[in-house]
Amino acid sequence: MMASFQYDFANRLTSATGTTYQYDNGGNRIQSQTSEQTLIYLYDTIGSMSRMLMSKTQDGAITKYIYGNGLIAQENSSGYYSPQLKRFINADIVVEAFKNPLA
Predict the structure, then answer these.
(1) Element holding 96 (H helix, E strand)
(2) pTM of structure
(3) Adjacent-strand bridge partners of 54
(4) Boundaries of every domain in the chain
(5) CA–CA distance, 52 with 27 (Å, rounded to integer)
(6) What is the number of other CB atoms lying within 10 angstroms of the CB of residue 8?
(7) What is the pLDDT of residues 42-101, one digit of tens each?
């Protein structure tokens, strides 16, 4: 299979062999989409792509990514998953982290 690439007028990659990309008015990539999932990106105030905000699979399953000092949890229909602990955690822990980040 031969690779295929397309670019827009600003020389931004808009598609690459099965993946399409969307950009905001500032030229930042805000979304990538395949036949299986959609990824939505969040940017910080200086324009660096710092976080993936959400992913959505073809069947509609959504995973949200929650950040503090790095990725602290992923939320999906099964609950909250902690990458550091490598297990699902109680939602109250995540809520408490946002209410009192120094606790």
Answers:
(1) helix 91-99
(2) 0.58
(3) 40, 64
(4) 1-60, 67-103
(5) 17
(6) 12
(7) 776 665 655 677 888 888 888 888 777 777 777 877 766 666 555 555 544 444 444 444
